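Format is sequence with structure; example below:
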Amino acid sequence: MRLVTWNINSLRLRLDLLRRLVQEEQPDVICLQEIKVQDSEFPEEELKSLGYPHILRHGMKSYNGVAILSRLPFLAKDPQNWCDKGDSRHGRVVLGGDLDLQNFYVPAGGDIPDAKKNVKFAHKLQFLDEMHAHFQNARRRKKSIMVGDLNIAPLEHDVWSHKQLLDVVSHTPIEVEKLTGIKAAGTWVDAVRHFVPESEKLFSWWSYRSPDWTRNDRGRRLDHIWVTPDLQKDLKAARIRRDMRSWKQPSDHVAVILDFG
């Protein structure tokens, strides 16, 4: 099975880019974040024509939203209503009867890393706390996958400059601490770092503010795929499609791809 996670940053705007990704990678399952389309306007028929008859969507008008597209049948599960906001940041399905897949879009958190001064950052921290409680307390299948734009680059080499980004939202110590706690609570394995040493720079996002992202390469690894230990032996390969950042009208995120045996 080939699994892709991608913050597409508007599904309808970048539907052609999704078509290209499907043609080049032929994934079995695609998890999208920030689809920015309400369910009534979701392009379901176009996605089915790409070969994905099984679709889960939780959308919003202009903001947020997640979707799971699959060639394989699945059982859809009710999403969590994180922080009582109903803002479409979570989707969950069960594939093949025993493979649990959860797709997250964690709040970005704004620009000021102070919960007292920035309600967006406070929301992000609350969301992370609720994720921690969920994975610590919920009964979970032995074979589980958690993917998405988690909006945190947890490791030193998940950002272009560890020292310079310590007080920048997405790499602050409190965010890293909370994400690390979530990982431990779920006994998750970082599937991409399973293949790429932590000493190696690895990014999945580059700001639109950079006039030449390739020259500066000031990226962050905000997009993740985690698996439970029972799946670790089945991991075959992982890649981040850096080249997608140079496509015409790209998302600021690129796809992360994981192959299972």
